[in-house]
Amino acid sequence: MDDIKLFDRWSTADIKVGDPGLVSYINLTPVLVPKTGGRFAKNQFHKSKLNIVERLVNRLFVCGHKGRKHKFTSGNNVGKSFTVLKLVTDAFDIIEKETKTNPVQIFVTAIENSAPIEEVTTFRKGGMTSREGVVTSPQRRVDLALRHIGQGTFSSSVKNRKPAAKCLADEILLAYKNDMKSKAVSERQRREKEAHGAR
After folding, report:
1. Within a 13 Å sphere around the CA of 90, how many CA atoms are in the beta-carbon half?
2. What are residue 186's phi and psi, to 5 degrees?
3. Per-residue pLDDT tens over the stretch 13-34
4. How confident is the model over 95-120, as pLDDT tens digits?
């Protein structure tokens, strides 16, 4: 299995996940093309069985959601697997040229840096609504990191001449550097600050 490389180019054998809480939820099983076609959809916690790059691809299909609003239409890329897979490979190419490092490792570190640890939940106590800071579960941490990377990519590429692959590469690299210019990192900071204030 170790000779299987992602897109027949990048090995996932030596990738290290630095955050112990996310080790079980960032799946780096070697695959040639990260597309299972919903094979695990009926299984509980099926997302954790998907390769992490496939989860990014799936998130880029419907990246326009923000809260309860569909901020941007996803009609440009829904269902076009080849288009989104090419977008991800082009972005990984750009990352590899700029950093001379395995882009999958850069992507995994970017997820770790943009996964919020705490957030606010709302619940009813008696007749009033209360807000309280809670610890975010590891599965949701990865979900939120991928969502915010997708939203950051889409918001910077829509109505812009910069190619979507370059926008995705920039978002991943900024998150890798823990830069506040990254939408994913700034959203993590906002959620954690809000949770800290609601304690």
Report:
1. 12
2. -65, -35
3. 888 888 888 888 998 888 888 8
4. 999 999 999 999 999 999 999 999 88
- Straight-line distance from the first to the last Cα atom of the chain, in angstroms, rounded to the nearest whole number: 47
Exposed e or buried b for every residue in 33-60, given b needs 16+ CB within 10 A?
ebbeeeeeeeeeeebbebbbbbbbbbbb
Using a cut of 0.90, tell me whether the model's pTM lies above it.
Answer: no
**Best CA proximity match to 73, nearest among 178, 176, 158, 196:** 158
The token pair at 151 is 């939203």
Per this entry, what is the length of the chain?
A: 199
Structural domains of the chain, ranges and CATH numbers in brackets: 20-197 (1.10.455.10)
